[in-house]
Amino acid sequence: MSHKPGIKLRDSFGSKFGVVAAAAGSAVGLGNIWKFPYITGVYGGAAFLFVYLGFILAIGLPIMLSELLIGRRSGRNAFGAFKKLAPKSAWKYIGLLGIAAAFMILSFYGVVAGWSIQYIILSIQDGFATKSPEQLNSLFTMLIESPQKPVYLQLIFMVLTGAIVIVGVKKGIEKFTKILMPILVFILLALCVKAITLPGAERGLEFLFKPDFSKLTSEGILSALGHAFFSLSLGMGTLITYGSYINRENNLLRTAVQVTAADTIIAILSGIAIFPAVFAFGIEPSSGPGLVFITLPNVFQQMPGGYIFSILFFLLLTVAALTSSISILEVVVAYFKEEFRLKRKPATIVATILISTLGIFCSLSMGVLEPYKLFGLNFFDLMDWISANMLLPLGGLFIALFVGWFLGAKKVYHEILKGGSVKRGLLYIFIFLLRFIAPIAIAIVFMDGIGLISL
Ligand code: TRP
Q1: Cβ(306) to ligand 1 under 6 A?
Q2: DSSP assigned state of 435
Q3: What is the Cα–Cα distance from 280 to 207, expressed in whole angstroms?
Q4: Which of 63, 4, 33 shows the shortest CA–CA distance to 398?
């Protein structure tokens, strides 16, 4: 879209459902289907899940509403929003923190999405048939360690992401999400049915739902918090940016509740689809980033129609990743566009090239660059850890303080009530969570997680 100087002509979403679909499209992605099961497996199962759910409700939901309202009230990108609402203050640096997080997240996100593309190809070639669980394991390991293929696949994914972002919000982002999300849910449901009827499924369900809180570690709790942010697309301005495309009739509270519910349901469904199978096929629940890619092909092998299901599953996983990756890239593009007065196209191209370059290092860090580590983490895990467990919670902390204390209850209520009536009591709870619960909980979990204090 071309800009005339001085005239504010911004993109916007076309319909109410479009708003929910785009925000849910951002939230639902690899975080739900790839990362959630894998870290739940690493941190011990049900206890992790319950802590995660607690964070979603008490911290995630109020911060999601906060981001949406900051975005709509300012009508700006993640950095510009704070400049507009709090002129000549340091709040705008929250926006910069977010831009940095966007770079890091998308750099490893594109790599995982690339693996998913490879699994579409393998599905089409019937490449999982007749393979034992061990062979499926080494199939995955060989892929991610290879110095070329995952790099190409990541680049393909990033080009796709850039192409959609160039087309812009309404045509690119909204249309795409509306049709495909429901199909993904259908496939997940079918997988759940198959998984829970596998012999030995109960042990998986027990692992996922029967908590043993003695298994919780400080690191696990911090990861649950970080993942609440990651999965809901919070803490770096994605939903500020999307909020800025939402018109005044939208009921932001309802949007936030719907998006949070959809995201959480899909994560739990993924867990139900995966853990029974993990136990049925004797896979180690804590096997790490490969968990989904190793486990599900075993299930497809045994499912009637498994050939088609596996193609569709990885196709839709890739699409779910795309509707999320465009929302991450959009944060950077909106920032470049509005703060450096670039046009959408060059802004997108520059951002895509920079992020893809970082992504090449992420990809290679699973193979040839594996020996190079910082704090015991390779580059891929480092980008993931710093963004999800540090930058997003810190971003969220400042967003909560900004809306709870700086903007103040009156402006906040006014913004929320634009789109319809909301019970007073709910507004009070919202402000209370933002002022006290979220900041204190984030600060404690963060300091405990990185070892500054010990609970
Ligand atoms: N929430 C997405 C997922 O679960 C990823 C994502 C999109 C994201 N935008 C974000 C993560 C902003 C953190 C911040 O896959």
Answers
A1: no
A2: I
A3: 12
A4: 63
State the pLDDT at residue 342.
95
pTM here? 0.94
Rg of the chain, C-alpha, whole Å: 21
**CB of residue 324 inside a 6 A radius of ligand 1:** yes
For residue 177, how far is its CA from the centre of ligand 1 (angstroms)? 15
Instruction: Pick the residue whose CA is nearest to atom 10 on ligand 1.
Output: 233
Q: What is the pLDDT of residue 170?
A: 65
If you ran DSSP here, which 8-state letter would residue 374 be given? B
Residue 59 CA to ligand 1 centre (angstroms):
16
Cβ atoms 235, 331 nearer than 8 A: no
Give the chain's length: 455
Q: Cα(436) to centroid of ligand 1, in Å? A: 25
Which 3 state secondary structure label does DSSP give 26? helix
**Count of Cβ atoms closer than 10 Å to residue 299 Cβ:** 24
Kindly give the distance from the C-alpha atom of residue 320 to the centroid of ligand 1, in angstroms, as a whole number.
11
Q: DSSP alpha helices (H): ranges in 58-200?
A: 61-74, 78-85, 92-124, 133-145, 149-167, 175-196
**Alpha-carbon span 403 to 406, nearest angstrom:** 6
Tell me the mean pLDDT per 10 residues along the chain, length 455.
44 74 92 98 97 98 97 94 95 94 98 98 94 94 96 98 84 69 88 94 97 95 98 97 90 95 97 97 95 96 91 93 94 93 96 98 94 92 96 98 94 91 92 97 95 86
- What distance in angstroms lies between residue 131's CA and the mean position of ligand 1's atoms? 33
Q: Which two tokens stand for residue 138?
A: 């080494």
CA-nearest residue, atom 4 of ligand 1: 31
Residue nearest (by alpha carbon) to ligand 1 atom 9: 233
The DSSP 8-state label assigned to residue 340 in this structure reads S
Query: Does the Cβ of 26 fall within 6 Å of ligand 1?
Result: yes
CA of 442 to the centre of ligand 1 (A): 19
